[in-house]
Amino acid sequence: MQTGPEQRGTIRRTGCCQEHFTESFFRGNFMMKRIAFTGAVLLSSLMSFSVMAAAPMSPEEQAAADVATRQAVFKLLAFNNGIVGAMARPGGTFDAAAAKTALERVEMLSTMIPEVFAKDTRAFKGPKTAASDTIWDNKADLAKLAGDLGAAAKAAQATLAAKPNADGAKEIAGAVGPKCGACHDRFRLK
Question: What homologous superfamily is domain 59-187 in, according to CATH?
Answer without folding.
Answer: Cytochrome c/b562 (1.20.120.10)
